[in-house]
Structure prediction request, 68 residues.
Amino acid sequence: MSQHVVFITGASSGIGQATALKLVKVGYHVIGTARRLERLHALAEQISNDPDLRGEFLPVPCDVRDSE
Prediction:
C-alpha cells in the first residue's frame, strides 16, 4: 500500500473527481472534500466497490469558502 496521501478539494465532480479516481487507481490515499455530501458519498461508494482500485478514499464534508 502506498504511503502517499493527497488532499483534494472539490472531489465530488469535474477535475477533482477525475483526479481522485486516477490517484486511488494507482494506490494513493485520497482525502476528498466537497460541499455536496451526496455526490461525495457516491464517489466513496464507487471507489469502495471497484476491486481494481488500489488506494483508499476518505470523504470529508467541507466548504473551503467557510473559514469555520
In short: The mean pLDDT is 91. The longest helix spans residues 14-25.
